């Protein structure tokens, strides 16, 4: 089959990549996958990819375009989904309203 066939995926402008590195020894795959799903649901038209990267040694880190936006040890545990979505939004489109996620933050 020719590589330039009609079945090829059309090229699109490059969209940002999120990488979630998780510890396989700690069995954090489900947590990482759940966070990936939440990001893909919320930012479906804004993200090009959410990758899950297995690692060891208790690591849990989330990067957006190579910038660490969450690191388990540095940031004190795991992010709640609201915080994670806000950190991604703040880098992708700071003026974007996240609906109920933002309204809940403004009540406190």
User: Which structural class is indicated by helix and strand composition?
Assistant: alpha+beta
Kindly report the spatial arrangement of strands forming the biggest sheet. Answer: 2-1-3-4
> Which topology does CATH recognise?
Glutaredoxin
Poorly predicted sequence stretches spanning 5 or more consecutive residues: none
Task: Explain the overall architecture.
- With 108 residues, this protein is of the alpha+beta class.
- It has one domain: Glutaredoxin.
- It has 4 helices and 4 strands.
- The chain has helices at 29-42, 72-75, 81-92, 100-107, and strands spanning 17-23, 49-55, 60-64, 67-71.
- A 4-stranded mixed beta sheet has the order 2-1-3-4.
- Helix 1 (29-42) crosses helix 3 (81-92).
- The model has no long low-confidence stretch (mean pLDDT 89).
Task: Name the descriptors.
single chain; 108 residues; alpha+beta; Glutaredoxin; four-stranded mixed β-sheet; 4 helices; 35% helix; globular
Mind sketching the topology for me?
Elements: E1 17-23, H1 29-42, E2 49-55, E3 60-64, E4 67-71, H2 72-75, H3 81-92, H4 100-107
């Amino acid at each position: 089959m020719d590589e330039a066939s009609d079945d090829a995926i059309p090229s699109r402008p490059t969209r940002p990549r999120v990488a979630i590195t998780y510890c396989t020894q700690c069995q954090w795959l489900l947590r990482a996958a759940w966070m990936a799903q939440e990001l893909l649901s919320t930012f479906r038209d804004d993200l090009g990819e959410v990758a899950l990267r297995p690692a060891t040694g208790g690591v849990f880190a989330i990067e957006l375009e190579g910038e660490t936006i969450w690191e388990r040890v540095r940031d004190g545990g795991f992010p709640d989904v609201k915080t994670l979505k806000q950190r991604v939004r703040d880098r992708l489109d700071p003026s974007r309203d996240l609906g109920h996620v933002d309204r809940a933050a403004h009540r406190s």
